Amino acid sequence: MDTHSEIAPDRRERALKALSEKPDGVVESIAAGAGVTAAEILAVLPEGSAVIAGKERFDEIWSELTTWGVVLFLVHTEDVVAEIDGILPAGSESHGWFNIHGDSPIGGHIRKDNCASITFVDRAFHGRRSCSVWFMNQKGAAMFKVFVKRDAGRELMADQLVKFEALRDRYASL
């Protein structure tokens, strides 16, 4: 599913109902319970909570994220949630993959062509503000997410939060 598409009315209604029952829950769990995609849940968040950038912005957004310092890189599948703290390395394209390698625990290969959009998500998660950048695929699922880190007091790191808000706001105005 292209995250820029309109949501069918029945799916929108299910997404809204499920989100109202657990507004600060795990998006993937809310979506599964409602029989909709994560992208459809993000689409019904309150105004400004999910700002979508086009897939053609992948390189410039990734490049900006490499300047944030240590972030939380998260991959959430049906079977595992992998959370990796590290600096996002610069990437390069080869043989159909966006390759990330460097002096970081975050490394590997991303099928960049599968990215349908990039969503800046600013919402409550289990009662606390959470800010993240979701790289979404055509099926309406997150390929991976990059989260603003928390400090020792469990507050969002101020320097990363400023960068997140500036980047999000740049795409909100397009």
Tally of separate helices: 5
Q: What string, H for helix and E for strand, traces the elements in order?
A: HHHEHEEEEEEEEH
Q: Over the alpha carbons, how many angstroms does the gyration radius reach?
A: 16 Å
Most strands sheet: 6 strands, antiparallel
Distance between the termini: 22 Å
Overall strand count = 9
Instruction: Detail the poorly predicted runs.
Output: none
Shape: globular
**β-strand amount:** 25-35%
Mean pLDDT: 94
Q: What share of the residues lie within helices?
A: 25-40%
Strand order of the largest sheet: 1-7-8-9-2-3
Indicate the structural class.
alpha+beta
Description:
The chain is α+β, with helices and mostly antiparallel strands. Helices cover 29% and strands 33% of the residues. The strands form 2 sheets. The protein has a 6-stranded antiparallel sheet. It has a 3-stranded antiparallel sheet with strand order 4-5-6, with no helix packed on it. Strand 4 (91-94) and strand 5 form a beta hairpin. The radius of gyration is 16 Å and the shape is globular. The mean pLDDT is 94.
Structure in a nutshell:
By secondary structure, the protein is an alpha+beta fold.
Features:
single chain; 174 residues; globular; six-stranded antiparallel β-sheet; three-stranded antiparallel β-sheet; alpha+beta
Lay out the secondary structure.
Blueprint (H helix, E strand, L loop, with lengths): L8 H13 L5 H8 L3 H6 L6 E5 L3 H8 L4 E7 L4 E7 L3 E4 L2 E4 L7 E3 L4 E11 L2 E10 L4 E6 L10 H15 L2
Antiparallel strand pairs: 1-7, 2-3, 2-9, 4-5, 5-6, 7-8, 8-9
